[in-house]
Amino acid sequence: MKKLFAGAFALALSGTAALAGGHQQIDSIHFLIPGGAGGGWDGTARGTGEALTKSGLVGSATFENMSGGGGGKAIGYLIENAGSSSGTLMVNSTPIVIRSLQGVFDYNFTDLTMIAGTIGDYAALVVGKDSSVQNFADLLAIYNNDPAELAIAGGSVAGGMDHLVAALAFKRAGADATQVNYLPFDAGGEALAALLSGEADALSTGLGEAIELAKQGEVRIIGVTAPERLADAPDVPTLKEQGVDAQFVNWRGFFAAPGLDADMAAAYTKVLGDVQGTDEWEAVRARNGWVNIYNPGADFTAFLQKQEAEIKELMTELGFL
Amino acid sequence: MSPRWFTLDRLIALVILIIALAYINASFNIRMLPFELRQPFKPNTYPLAIGTLTAIIAFLVTIMPPATEEPGNGSKGGDTEGWREFDWLRFAVFFVLMIVYATFLRAGGFIPSTIVFLFLGSLVLGERRVWISLPIIAGLTAGLWYLVTQVLGIYMPAWPSGLAGSFGQSAQIVSAATPLVLGA
Amino acid sequence: MLEGFMTGLAAALSFKAIAMVVVGCLIGTFIGMLPGLGPMSIIAIMIPFAVSLGDPTTSLIMLAGVYYGAVFGGSTSSILINAPGVPSTVATSFDGYPMARAGKAGKALTIAAISSFAGGTIGAILLTMFAGPLAEFAKTFWSAEYFALMVAGLTAIAAFAGRGQVLKAILMVLVGLMLATVGQGALFNQARFTMGVADLESGVGFVTLIMALFALPEALFLVLNPKKGNQEGDGQDKEIKDLRITKEEARKIAPVIGRQSIVGFLIGVMPGAGATIASFIGYATERNLASPEEREQFGKGSVKGLSAPETANNAASTGSFVPMLTLGIPGSGTTAILLGALIALGVTPGPALIDKNPKIFWGVIISMYLGNVVLLVLNLPLIPYIAKLLTVPRAYLIPFVLFFSLMGAYIGQNNVTELYLMIGLAAVATLLRFADFPLPPIIIGFILGVMLEDNLGRSLRKFRDLDWMYERPVTLGLLIVAVLFVLVPLATDWRARMGRAKQTAQGD
């Protein structure tokens, strides 16, 4: 009985129940995860691998966790072992840009081969349901009156992503963005709890983190950093439509070793895009609440360079660098 | 134990005192971002507080009257009684074994390194019946590797990297070679 | 409410559901024994399988079985080889391991199982009755209150401040607090005190430290002193496997279970606290409530000292479902993952859950009752066999304990530097033991230190002064409790020392 279940797991978990489909594009991919098992990067890599293998686009997927140095160890490993790592894709996300700028890593993300951005989440500014704040203008009025009176919680460190987004919004609205009274929490959930308890007056977080509670009327999203309203959340106003051109997307995507053969890079880029059209991907995506933002090869590179320049300018101005 | 002044615990407290002072010094040298300098709670506010407290307490322990042994308080001290007769050599051997194991774990692969580590460990501790110990150790190591990698899906290369192609992949993985990708 | 409860009950009592909870419990128990694989990672690993079962209620019931099994499995390694794989079972090892060392492993495991069961079940009852109002209660806690709660939790070190040991225990807790500041925290954008070592940027790993301080020195001491073990262990086969608890012991732990179920549950309800804090506070509270003779036994194999944290951490784990189910906020790493599972099953937790999806809401709660019962029924008969692991010959047991300890930090991380760090810290820990420095305070300081600084920092940013320490009644109350917890042992220590000084003076 136990053996039977163990077998069932292996199947369900490693997701290698390859369909005999004739459309296999790549034989195998080794995913390098710069953090421990169970984190956000881990879930992204394993979910992507699951969809790739179950849909039959990729024959097999293996996953290697390599934590250390806030992700820097894996980046270093991929660069130093570039010659033998042509079968490896490393998952990463927006913080790689921020942390590269801060000089945390020995290497910069631009040293790697950029494959594709695959999923993302827009940032949102959120208030409690009983708050007097109805829109971004109300929030700005409080902030302009006395920034210290507006405690904004977020799930990343001071000077990190959530702080940056709040500051970005105020900056683009013409206010002095250096005065944000930011309360850093360990995770988005704790920051959300602080909003509900009244410790924080507003919350800066990922839209995915807040959308469910907003649908139930527990919190109010007063602005999202998307270019236009989202199909999944048509009632949520963007900051842009409120006259504040603050756009930001927290992406997750994949990188390969430096000097990777162009054909191979193109093959990886293609397969990560093709998978998004499959039912298997849709199942994984829905399970994790991801938003598709497929951003292939050269576009991804251009996007990252633009994001880096924007963030650098903002962080310098705010005194984050 | 005679109430000598220079006891091991005083020496350790002195070392902690030095560490605390170095910690305080390092707290002053934390690179602070411009915006953090304006904050009431800086990256070194709390470290300075606990570092100072540690230095004070460590100093007090170095000058404190000796903690005389109380009857009935021996349960903790009992561990270290008669330390002169302890098997220090074997103790050192185990430290070396652990360091060597850690060093070769990645390069040597999980299964060979672990079998060697456990086998040498049992040998040092007096198990001479190799024909019994080796199969047990090999079986347990392989079983654990199977559980962790195949059932739980956690990555851990079993063999030295050169051999990975021949044994490392399980039957579930469709094919281990990567002709399409690697093929020039 | 009753109707919803019955619907959930009917779903939970199907054959498939019960089979799944049994499977979940078994898997959880055995994987949970491996250090480094706590309930959180095991649940994360099991979610795809649970989701594939199709029916949400059945999936949740299976995950509950995995969860309770993993928590119990974690306690097992704490008790048997002093290797707590997750922070919430650290306090369990304080008295559980000394009991096992004294040859009472079977008894210790039984007390742990019964306390877990009682804590979990009473927690589930409280959850059934008061989920709504409790969610409101959870909202009253700000960082200021959490800070005070951490201070109260730190007083658990009092148990290791024996006579003449008070300053040493305080020194050790401070060392733990200093260690906790290494690396990148939640507050600041830079890694501190890494001394240029890149691997320290994410801080000292919990498993690395706990194995270095607890499991490795224990195993290495057996290597050092071959005589010692020979007196224990051998010829005690019967007692090791003996599960029975005497009537007197039952009388001792009953009130502990009663109190700690409630206190632990309430702490668990707070989204920023959780099972670890609950276990430390439970331990500290029971030690202070115990009679002076019983207090002496804490840290040396007290049944109360084992029962208190085991009850409290299970009740707290159950309590952490309150904010998740009613507010949609994950209060702990484990509930965050379970929240993910719920969403994967197409269920959105939050205030509307009870009305919109009563079958799921009650299904979750009933799965808790069922998970606890199955765990007890399943594991009590297994305890003699689990305890017998200790009778494995030394030549195998010691290398395996060392191996398991090293693996705990390596599995799923693949970072060898952690292993070197662990071995180095183990050498330091051995030295500290020779000098009679108590080691548990280091780990208490290490675990609570991060939350102590974070909550202090947030409160200072929010209020810009320290007035909140006396202006917020709950904060003040908790701080007063903490001060009392410290003063009681200090006073006894001082009195004892005075008495001794007088004696020696007269003796001269």
Question: Could you characterize what this model shows?
Answer:
The complex is a heterotrimer of chains A (321), B (184) and C (508). Chain A has 11 helices and 10 strands. Chain A is of the alpha/beta class and 321 residues long. Chain A has 2 domains: 27-120 and 250-315, 3-Layer(aba) Sandwich (D-Maltodextrin-Binding Protein, domain 2); 121-248, Periplasmic binding protein-like II (D-Maltodextrin-Binding Protein, domain 2). In chain A, strands 1, 2, 3, 4, 5, 6, 7, 8, 9 and 10 form a 10-stranded mixed β-sheet that branches. The N and C termini of chain A lie far apart (58 Å). Chain B is mainly alpha-helical. Chain B has 2 domains: 8-67; 88-164, no CATH class. Chain B has helices at 8-28, 34-37, 45-63, 74-77, 88-108, 110-124, 130-151, 164-168, 179-182. Chain C has one domain. Helices cover 75% and strands 0% of the residues of chain C. Chain C contains 25 helices and no strands. In chain C, helix 2 (15-32) crosses helix 19 (358-379) and helix 12 (247-269) crosses helix 13 (275-289). Chain C is globular and about 75 Å long. Chains in contact: A-B, A-C, B-C. At the B-C interface, helix 1, helix 3, helix 4, helix 5 and helix 6 of B face helix 8, helix 9, helix 10, helix 21 and helix 22 of C.
